[in-house]
Amino acid sequence: MNDGTLMPVSAAEIEWTDEADVVVAGLGVAGAAAAIEAARAGADVVALERLGGGGGAAAMSGGFIYLGGGTALQRALGFDDSVENMKSFMKAALGPGVDEAKIDVYCEGSVEHYDWLVGAGVVFDESFWGEPGWEPPHGEGLMYSGGENAAPFNATIPPAPRGHLPRRAAVTGGEQAGGYMLMKPLLDFVDDLGVRTLYDNSIRSLVVDDDGRVVGVVSRSFGNDMAIRARRGVVLATGSFAYDDTMLHDHAPQIEGRPAASIESHDGRSILMGQALGAATAHMDATEVAIFCDPQLMARGILVNGQGQRFVTEDTYPGRIGQATLLNQGGEAFVIIDEASYEEALTTESTSAMMRATPKWVCESVGELEAEIGLPTGSLSATVDLYNMHAANGTDPLFGKKSQWLKPISTPVAAYDLRGMTGGFTLGGLKTTVDSEVLHVSGVPIPGLYAAGRCTSGVCAGGYASGASLGDGSFFGRRAGVSAAAAG
Amino acid sequence: MNDGTLMPVSAAEIEWTDEADVVVAGLGVAGAAAAIEAARAGADVVALERLGGGGGAAAMSGGFIYLGGGTALQRALGFDDSVENMKSFMKAALGPGVDEAKIDVYCEGSVEHYDWLVGAGVVFDESFWGEPGWEPPHGEGLMYSGGENAAPFNATIPPAPRGHLPRRAAVTGGEQAGGYMLMKPLLDFVDDLGVRTLYDNSIRSLVVDDDGRVVGVVSRSFGNDMAIRARRGVVLATGSFAYDDTMLHDHAPQIEGRPAASIESHDGRSILMGQALGAATAHMDATEVAIFCDPQLMARGILVNGQGQRFVTEDTYPGRIGQATLLNQGGEAFVIIDEASYEEALTTESTSAMMRATPKWVCESVGELEAEIGLPTGSLSATVDLYNMHAANGTDPLFGKKSQWLKPISTPVAAYDLRGMTGGFTLGGLKTTVDSEVLHVSGVPIPGLYAAGRCTSGVCAGGYASGASLGDGSFFGRRAGVSAAAAG
């Protein structure tokens, strides 16, 4: 990105064309939450959205929001959860290197945040989906979404489901997914509060006064530049850098060429604009990693790497499987499943049923299958023998897979080829305080600048749980709006 | 680091107390190389060193310099190498995400760089060490130092040893290691060229003029601040951030609490000072990882993880084993070796002999050993059975270990516990051009600012080879000196 616009512009050189108390860049989940809270605090807010309508990547997502500590939905469905258990799980599963202060306030504020979303018009169905899967098949409101009920976490931290999903709505020709059903009420709320929304309007530069305070932005709409003064603060909320090739190469090369669950406007621009002012970043290498396989199949089979070895508990959150595959196994993975388990999986419900395509290999013996796949002679056989020996006793001492999924692998036996079947989005970005102030590398906030969502490093460092991005984006987006409205 | 000094200082507010054409911060290998080349180009150079003498982490290191493409030493010892093979290996082994342009110029300039070092007074012994090890035992001049002659690289890229080591010198009570024997002549050269060296002098801030050009530094010596004008340029060469807890937590948490092969003044300050001006960084998560075990033992045994599975070819560069252990296995590793191989290893020479402490467990059977270590029942037995079956035929289809190291594991059999036996230093830092200009996030160089060594991202992204840091530090240090002297 060598167009020079990333350099901050001096306020002395600007003729303002518009102004507001708070300028929000990006109308995905973080920007909408920021705009709402800034407006509710009495600020005059203008929100810029690069695309022709609001919603961002959030509106196209499944809609998971990671919440817990005893939300009304958890309680209604009979699940015990506590703030402490939620903290323990997030610190164990989303690291190493997590921002502990951020996780603390996130967990402590989670019950209130759920109520806030409901108050904003987001509807959660009082139903639970307990089967393996990426998403619940009928818009159920609650699901495990981070491996809480799987090894190694379930041995030490009492599990609770924390993936909260907005209820889907039937529309002509299908239904609206959870992400849309999250963003629709939030965007309506933005409008109802009188926030001015400027679409097809892309932030280009930050404007800084002589004291280094961010006092506005330059944006562009249909080729025309605007200079919008922000009397109190600017909130950056333009999403990840999953679609910027240079940034991926320099920071997260493992997903070069394979962005997923992201949108093309995620070009990392807000991160770079912040860095141009000396902002610190964190965990720029971290990525969510999806693996394109039905979890109903994975849980019933075993996953092996290019050496025919198991490497992860197959009944955990599929995003953990994706990370283990791409980050630790160089992207090499195969699902091994016998005919009986395959047939059983086909009878289950899953939103990932399109990932159940016919197995690539089907053989009468494990030895044949091993040869067909091209695994080292004896490797898969040894793995299956060891797995079967323990599975017959209902145990998995290697990875702690739960007994309900443990059954010796029989014949005929089949395999899916998952090489190249991973993709993801970036989790790193601007380093922010718990009040969503953007931190300078010297450790102090940059005056007038706030950020939230995937242009920031949030509650995740190395690990991931579905709902963590909509969760911290909306939670710290709200805080960005509150902070910006109170500044100046 | 919240003392405010990282904020750039305006030249308008400065009263200069000293000046030079080029100011170099840090007198390790990169700073010394920069000072030499700037002075040779006719610049008046002042070099600031935080400690009481020059040398930095380089002087305390083993002294490997990664060079190839047919250096005089390689040719004298009968090794064929080519620039293309060197490029291919570095791009395959040091990624993903390597800076290809940087590797290209590095490989193309490697033969000349070797000659330059020799011309500067660095002596390389015309001898080769071909045994597994971290360093050669007698100051031999050449050794494999990146896994070139091991799987998977040796199957496709003709291997050549590229670890060049300065000859050690006998001194009273022992001998000087290679790193000292590299830095001594370079520092003498610095002095001979008339570079002014200021010790106990630590850079505090960069000074910037109204156009954003770096025109000097503020430094501190024994509590007194100095403002040193740089008529042409400033070169940052103050080393890694392995000793800054916050930066490690935010970028490379895998080595939190376990810095190695680094020095306490490696606080990342140059990276932060660059970032305060909007500099880009790259691969801040990347780390070298040492594993504290004698490679003579590892090559003769097998390495297994907490599931009793092998995970790496045991005869490769031990730094690759360290990375595989810490990054992919959560730091869990055990060496399994039978009595005969153990006895054989004890007869070999190794600089890592102090890492041969008595094995933690010795048993009469693999099954007993597995139980003693606490590995899952049957796991290590299955691994050894599979390994032995192939080793009897002289093959290792899982990881490609060379036949010379393949022998079925017999009994009695022992194990070393390598959990917690890893440590390392950081490889990420400022993003620079092939001419060592520091790049702004907008993609253009920051005028007047140059950097080299481990405060920059060099030829390594994810992977590592011993000698890559002294190699790119000295190579791009020279380029920083040339560029700074030519600027202004």
TrEMBL record, chains A, B:
Molecular function via GO: steroid dehydrogenase activity, acting on the CH-CH group of donors
Cofactor(s) listed in the protein's UniProt record: FAD
Domain FAD-dependent oxidoreductase 2 FAD-binding: 21-467
Oxidoreductase listed as a keyword: yes
Keywords: FAD, Flavoprotein, Oxidoreductase
GO terms classed as biological process: steroid metabolic process
InterPro entries cross-referenced by the UniProt entry: FAD-dep_OxRdtase_2_FAD-bd (IPR003953), FAD-oxidoreductase_2 (IPR050315), FAD/NAD-bd_sf (IPR036188), Succ_DH/fumarate_Rdtase_cat_sf (IPR027477)
Name of the protein this chain belongs to: Flavoprotein
